[in-house]
Write a structure and sequence with these properties.
Blueprint lengths: L3 H6 L2 H10 L17 H17 L6 H20 L7 H31 L6 H12 L6 H23 L12 H25 L6 H27 L16 H11 L6 H25 L6 H9 L8 H19 L6 H5 L2 E4 L11 E4 L2 E4 L8 H10 L2 H11 L4 H8 L12 H17 L6 H25 L5 H12 L3 H12 L7 H19 L7 H10 L5 H9 L16
């Protein structure tokens, strides 16, 4: 399998030609300011949506779902009324971004409705809590005696559900509450508690008779809801906030994955993406074998990886290493004229160390707040954890991670997203956000950012890791792989330390990332590489022009970026169809 730079950027003669044709300021069609007369429509949609979501803050309430549906239908009508044929390329892209978002919101509401119906038998008190809070929204008079009776009933129902769940298994006709369902129920019960607390706080300190009528009943209801949520989370799901908590996630299934794929403008099935991950994984294995041979380990690749992992800096020196690598990457990019780096972007980054608690889910690095967040052992870690953290963040692994997080990766990307196509930020996709940084890892590999086989092993380790993410995350959501199997795969096939692998899987299956997020790194990177093959080359565009153009489109689906760069006027009924061999 040939890499991008072997095909389009790697050949020295080609690179020289491309660099020669790039102007000092990167002028050309790709450098022009992105504009769209639909930008104000998009901004209004986003602002109105946020206003509704902020006001209708009980996300599962019938009133909320109905209002969202009505809002979306209004916007769908506005889109249908537009003269689509008169729209230019940029306007059509914004049209499709809006329509895709409306389709996605409708599909997600339908999935949520199914979850609500599944959970309803365990949340009989939800309707009463919703009624109390929505009547407060509407300013209806509060009947204190009736409210007190409602609170008593909520407490009774919470106790009955708790008893039912504790007794589960004794009656074969009862539906079992497993770990994933218990976590969802616990989260929703806590949400109900918050809604009830909001209702109580509105009245308790200014309505004179409220405390007399409702004070004791409110406390009892909250206590019983708390006991229910605690039992679901800690006793059923076994989630007690400890390092050895079992890993429990909620696979979304094939139907929901297809909804997510449509939203991301990906014309691939989950199975096809898994196959891409496996192909990329095999390529990395072969490249690692070559690097292992250079180091004298032959086919003993894992031994070579272990030897590289031992090459870490001393405690207290990781921040200096990262800063030196970041500055070196900036100089390398400028020397090869690969992307425009605004002076203020180059000036405004720094590093921050990650505490031991955060390293449970971020064992390597992350980007946020103009900072690369750097993982390395803290003083309170035990000896084994310190060793794993140092080995997992060794010099040569970090050489790949640093430019991924800073420049040309997320720091440069975020800087430009704040300045170009800003109305599109609400449509951001991990396939561009993470794919951009991963694409640069491919470019760096092909342009010899690595300074020896140790660096190549570090870069290939991460590339293999991203291929593994596709495989394990999609198989998890398809019900084909359990969390422990995912950890074993990362340890045995990739070479992770077990603690780091556990932290990775905890994040993959948790609620903070979409089901396709872990695919976004490599699949997005491969999409950008495929697009580069189309538009970069002699008589076409220079690498710098291509990279600058990507940054000016903001973080939208890559197929839509491709339409902009190629000047494609998408049809009104266009859906994801671009399917390059990845």
């Amino acid at each position: 399998m040939k890499s991008l730079l072997q095909i389009s950027l790697a050949a020295p003669a080609f690179l020289t030609l491309c660099l020669a044709c790039a102007t000092a300021e990167g002028a050309g069609p790709f450098q022009q300011e992105l504009s769209s007369s639909l930008s104000e429509e998009v901004r209004q949609f986003v602002s109105d949506q946020r206003a509704l979501d902020s006001f209708y803050d009980m996300e599962r309430a019938p009133q909320t779902l109905a209002r969202q549906a009505a809002f979306d239908e209004t916007w769908r009508t506005r889109l249908e009324a537009m003269d689509f044929e008169s729209l230019d390329v940029a306007q059509r892209i914004d049209f499709h971004l809006l329509r895709t978002e409306l389709d996605f919101r409708q599909a997600k509401r339908e999935l949520l409705q199914g979850q609500i119906e599944q959970c309803a038998p365990y949340l009989p008190f939800q309707e009463a809590i919703t009624h109390l809070e929505t009547t407060r929204w509407e300013g209806q008079p509060l009947e204190l005696a009736q409210a007190a009776a409602t609170l008593d009933q909520i407490a009774v129902q919470a106790r009955e559900v708790l008893k039912r769940i504790k007794d589960q298994g004794k009656d074969e006709e009862q539906v079992e509450v497993d770990g994933p369902l218990a976590l969802r129920l616990a989260d929703w019960v806590r949400s109900s508690k918050r809604d009830l607390r909001t209702w109580n706080e509105h009245y308790s300190k200014f309505l004179p008779a409220f405390e007399w009528w409702c004070g004791a009943s409110y406390k009892e209801a909250q206590d019983d809801l708390d006991k229910l949520a605690k039992h679901l989370k800690e006793d059923v799901a076994k989630q007690k906030g400890e390092d050895d908590d079992p890993l429990i996630g909620q696979p979304i299934g094939a139907q929901a994955l297809q909804i997510e794929l449509a939203h991301e403008w990906l014309a691939y099935t989950p199975e096809e993406l898994i196959a891409v991950g496996e192909t990329q994984f095999a390529w990395c294995e072969e490249e690692l074998r070559k690097a292992s041979e250079e180091l004298g380990f032959g086919d003993r690749v894992q031994e070579a990886i272990e030897a590289v992992k031992a090459l870490h800096v001393a405690p207290g020196e990781q921040d200096a290493l990262v800063m030196a690598q970041a500055r070196e990457a900036i100089a390398w990019l400028k020397r090869n004229d690969l992307v425009t780096i605004p002076a203020l972007c180059e000036e405004t980054w720094r590093v921050r160390m990650i505490d031991e608690r955060t390293q449970r889910v971020l064992p390597f690095a992350a980007y946020g707040g103009q900072s690369m967040q750097v993982a390395f052992p803290t003083s309170v870690m035990d000896f084994e954890s310190k060793q794993m953290s140092m080995r997992g963040n060794n010099r040569h692994f970090t050489r790949c991670v640093t430019p991924h997080e800073l420049i040309p990766g997320h720091h440069l990307q975020g800087f430009m997203a704040e300045r170009y196509g800003t109305w599109r930020r609400s449509f951001r996709t991990p396939f561009l956000v993470e794919g951009w940084a991963l694409y640069w890892e491919m470019v760096e590999y092909d342009l010899d950012w690595a300074q020896g086989p140790e660096d190549r092993i570090g870069m290939l380790f991460w590339r293999m890791h991203r291929a593994a993410r596709i495989i394990v995350s999609l198989k998890f959501h398809l019900g084909q792989m359990q969390p422990e199997e995912m950890i074993d795969f990362l340890v045995e096939r990739v070479g992770h330390e077990r603690d780091n692998a556990t932290s990775e899987v905890r994040r993959y299956i948790g609620p903070d990332y979409s089901a396709l997020y872990q695919c976004g790194y490599m699949i997005g990177g491969l999409q950008l590489r495929a697009l580069a093959k189309e538009v970069v080359g002699p008589g076409k565009r220079s690498p710098r022009e291509y990279h600058d153009a990507i940054l000016r489109e903001n973080s939208i689906p890559i197929e839509l970026i491709r339409a902009s760069i190629l000047g494609q006027e998408l049809g009104e009924e266009a859906r994801a169809s671009w399917k390059p061999a990845l």
